[in-house]
Amino acid sequence: MSELDRTKCRRWVAERFSAERMVDEYIGVYENILAKTKREDHRPWGYYVILTDKPDHKIKRIVVYPGQRLSLQRHQYRAEHWHIICGQALVTRDGDDIELKSGQTVDLPQGAWHRMMNPGKENLVFVEIQSGSYFGEDDIQRVEDDYGRV
To answer: Is the same domain home to 59 and 83?
Structure first.
């Protein structure tokens, strides 16, 4: 490659890959990676951490603050299994109230109306195992919600 060709190549690279442009593009890529790998999501009632997200199941660790509850909801594409880690739980499943404590579980079939409430004075922690064909947050049909999300 001649010196003239090298100079043209350097000029071409400098025009297209300025330090400012490269920083802007790097930040954009970094923000995209963060958005796609976000594992913790805070809600008015508490928060959850996604432990596993696979094509055939999803597992979350969910924390519900004292006196708070999730919306009364159902899912078209998934069933859920809840295992209480610590705290007190009051689960509503298709109109029935079920009290649970550490070590106890409840199954929520696909299409069942359900909600979780923390009637205790400490955080309620449980693991949610989702199974089915789709696990997106848009597979939530709410009929009651304390936070105006119906």
So the answer is: yes
pLDDT at 99 (0 to 100):
98
Are 85 and 139 spatial neighbours (Cβ–Cβ below 8 Å)? no
Q: What is the pLDDT of residues 29-63, one digit of tens each?
A: 767 776 666 678 999 999 999 999 999 999 999 99
Q: SS3 for 140?
A: coil
Say yes or no: 63 and 125 in one domain. Answer: yes
pTM for this structure?
A: 0.76
Is 149 inside any structural domain?
no
Burial of 93 (0-12, 13-18, 19+ CB in 10 A): middle
SS3 of 76-126: the string is CCEEEEEEEEECCEEEEECCEEEEECCCCEEEECCCCCEEEECCCCCCEEE
Collapsed DSSP state (helix, strand, coil) of residue 75 = coil
What confidence tens digit (pLDDT) does each residue in 77-98 have?
999 999 999 999 999 999 999 9
Quote the domain boundaries for residue 132: 40-144
Q: Round to whole Å and give the CA distance between 121 and 127.
A: 19
Same domain, 16 and 84: no
